[in-house]
Write the structure tokens for this entry.
Amino acid sequence: LNHIVEQVKLLDRFSNKSVTGTLHLTATHLIFVESNSTSAQEIWILHHHIASVEKLSLTTSGCPLLIQCRNFRLVHFVIPRERDCHDIYSSLLRLLRPVSYDELYAFSYNPKQNDQQREEGWQLIDLAAEFERMGVPCDQWQLTDVNREYKVCKTYPRDVYVPITASKPIIVGSSKFRSKGRFPVLTYFYQEKKAAVCRCSQPLSGFSARCLEDEHMLQAISKANHNSRYIYVMDTRPKLNALANRAAGKGYENEDNYSNIRFQFVGIENIHVMRGSLQKLLEGVGTRSLSMTDYLVGLENSGWLRHIKAIMDAAIFLAKAVTVEGASVLVHCSDGWDRTAQVCALGSLLMDPYYRTIKGFMVLIEKDWISFGHKFADRCDQLDPDPKEVSPIFTQFLECVWQLTEQFPQAFEFSEWFLIQIHEHVHSCQFGNFLGNSQRQREDLQLKERTYSLWAHLLSENQNYLNPLFSPSFAESHPVLEPSTQAYHFKFWRNMYNQYDRSMHPRQSILKHVLTLQESNRELEGTVQALKTKLQKFGVNTSPLKPQTPPRECSLPPRPQSLILGAPLLSRKEVQQEEDEEVFGEEAREDAPASTGGERTVEGSSATENSYGELMGSFGSKNEPGVVTLEFGVARMTC
Amino acid sequence: MEFAELIKTPRVDGVVLRRPFMPTVEGTLCLTGHHLILSSRQDNTEELWLLHANIDSTEKRFVGSLGTIIVKCKDLRVIQLDIPGMEECLNIASSIEALSTLDSVSLMYPFFYRPLFEVIEDGWQSFVPEESFKDLESMTDEWRLSEVNKDFSVCPSYPSLLTVPRDIDDESLCKAASFRHGGRFPVLSYYHKKNGMVIMRAAQPLTGTNGRRCKEDEKLINATLCAGKRGYIIDTRTIAVAQQAKARGGGFEQEANYPQWRRIHKAIERSNVLQDSLIKLVEACNDQSHSMDRWLSKLEASNWQSNVKEILTTACLAAQCIDREGASVLVHGTEGTDSTLQVTSLAQIILDPACRTIRGFEVLIEREWLQAGHPFQQRCAQSAYSNGKLRSEAPVFLLFLDCVWQILRQFPCSFQFNENLLIMLFEHAYASQFGTFLGNCVAERGKLQLSQKTVSLWSWVNRPQELERFLNPLYEPNNLVIWPSVAPQSLLLWEGVFLRWNRSTKCLDEAYQEMVHIIEYNKELQNKVNSLRRQLAQLETEDKMVADLK
């Protein structure tokens, strides 16, 4: 299998621009190589990233092929011969619907590491150590072996933490009263107030059913915290949804049956609403010649930012209950693996500065998403697709974190490129971490033996994801983040949803600039030291250099060639060239009344690019320089 | 008139000042002829000094004998004063009302303000048209400086010296002036060194319904074209609006009479529409109770971002004609004092790296706004809290600043100045101790004798101590044309102005400081390395000399 089609045109999504090149179809990637030898742009699209392929009807210039990717890339090829187009189309259809896990890229991907390195990669994140960091086990919380064999709950990890007073019969009884057996367990322990964040699924209460073991279970959680007489039970669903569930024998906790609980709905919509919302959002921001009005109306109608705000509001509620009131909180939704994961993870991140570091953020994802069974395979459409199961739940979590980085630029060790890179790999199926729906399934697949860990990969190049403004002392002054949830603080995340639409991005990046300076500072510090040593040989003693920034522990390897930060740091000359070759986001909308009569000075080909208005096909000339690629994606990395 | 007549109660004790995101201050309220002052008379609490001219509107409320005045300022801030005593409160309110709406320009604060700093460089003398003409002369001899408007009789809103094509005599200029709205005949706005193309600006031609023409006007603008070349006329109005203007004696250039020009219509809104847009936007930003949907819908309904996009797009189009198409451009709308200036000045920021320095930006504002006759006094008489009875207020200049900010956001390393300079200009255009933005045109400023009786804003800004605040630490001079993206996703709400008083910026400010710190540390290290290298090189040479001697 290795199709090669030449003379393929790649059309720009927002302008009438196009480039010609060769299309290669390999077992893992669809690759477009621009013919123009000077700029030679390359686009690598991983098959797993392709969400849909569409063959449009034949035009005079060829057969259009529209490819939509899960990382929000949209490419539009025009293939000269229909036959070639059909071949590519049908091959892709086959390739992007793997039927078994073995076909996923992770099982063939080999970063040239030996077994030992691979194992070390998987050992980087240790959840037992994480619970220890939180101060668990302790006098009130213990590790239980009740789920060692996945007998009580198939979608939970083997190791779960419960109150000391919750005996096995209570746990088992409670699990029978909860959807999918997901009984209340500890996910975060706020040591300072001994308050716990627990998670579970909805109770099978119907209209009147009750379960004494479950009631005991909640009481045990309550008793484990001496600081508060009550616990909060947060049902993250809208009340209507929870009511509707009662008819199906599920539902929510009746306050009369549980002593000392404070029950609260927070109104986050379900996976279907979120899927539709993202769809609408993308349709809006993917429109050509988008007017400001349509953009803002589209943003509003999609409801996307409203949902993001709802998740943030819930997380803030959780963090306040724990840190201010010192109360323990039990969070659930229906199954307890979507909204519950969002709220628990985001809430913990607000409370604990550790989760705002690179390593800590990995731990957080490992704990609240991977180990507690967020169904990555279903939600991200990895295998055996059921379109009704797909939903951007994890993407929303990443976006909430991004919104926080905008309000607190110094609170996070990582920059948004870290979030975008994680998003990329949740869908890439290149690493084993996100494959499957639960820990049990991952063990069955022997992922640790057969695939590599994303975390090791990201840590190995963490200098690309650093936030240069990160201040460790910020965590001391702001152990708990208190973001504002005024509507105007929520912004559209252009660098995520329009990440491949380069023309929309600022042409000079402050982030990149400051990162470069920081790197340069480290080098200069080294040079200063070296010079001083030499001077000492001459008997000259210079005053010791006072480092103004706290020295970083890691030493920096040279920046690799093709990383998400936008390729190697460009030299001054290249940057200039690039700026000079700006492509514009605006399209011709209406033709100006053409001037009548008179000959026109046409010195060369017509200007078809860079159009802010009605100059299309008008007189005038210029030589279009080739476009320098500055890929935002990881195209090259994934090969 | 004495200010004392307007101040019935000059001073009230026990007044409480409330501002969002700032601590409450209790103290003594004093009214002077030009300021509202609130001081707690304690060392470390901030005093409030508010220019009456900065007050856009006031509201008063009473609960028992405790009165509350809500003061809404032109810089968009809203403050609340709780004043004990009904009579005091009423007196204060009516004084503020009267003092903030003084009609006579000569009673304004700039005429009373005496600088506490030494004027090193007089801003009134900093920008002389002859100087910029010298630069032009060094590049081309196609242009001359005309004194036809020496006594402001040809065009009252133009300055006395104008740059026009060399081959057009003053008599033709007068005729062309009679064919243009307000006498604003086409004059040079910008000369593009790279290819000799120019931006000219004017007001609409007075073609009327029967298609009047004017040979001199045609000759004048054709004189700016090189042989065989063509140009673009950018009319900032839609074709429909331009058509309607004919009925009132205005109009647009007919193709038949201007065969060498191609006309493009854009849709920049008229001033009253823009004022409405500002009012709606600020209302949306100030309502903290909005749900997400309501906020987005209010933001959309204000149309502010649409206006920004349209203005920026038109400016990019003009710049594109010049730099990419190699064609000269004539820009006009109706009067040529609003949208025209937005377009010509923004195009220059895109095209000309000099305009992205502080000095160059000052020159641009001086030349394309103040000298070019943007009626600041009229446009900035009221801001977003104006209610009813608007005359000709419009945030034309603020929109320009917003567009500059958008470009600055997209090219954060290409400007010598930072956002603070833009915000400062917005403030001073609406209320200031300096005379720079008083009056509506050069002629009026002359009559007011501003240069003798008031201090220029530039005298203050250009002091090294002040300049510091406006410098962009990321600046690296860049000689390129910078093409901003005008996609809606790329244009942001200017939070620095519109959310300025509605959010806490502590975290953002600290992050900015950290960035400055990294940049400065880099410079310091580089200096250190250089000096050590020199020291080492010297020692090595000495060493070698010693060795050689041996």
In short: Chain B touches chain A through 90 residues (CB under 8 Å). Chain B has three domains: 4-102, 129-503, 506-549. The CA atoms of residues 145 and 163 of chain B lie 5 Å apart.
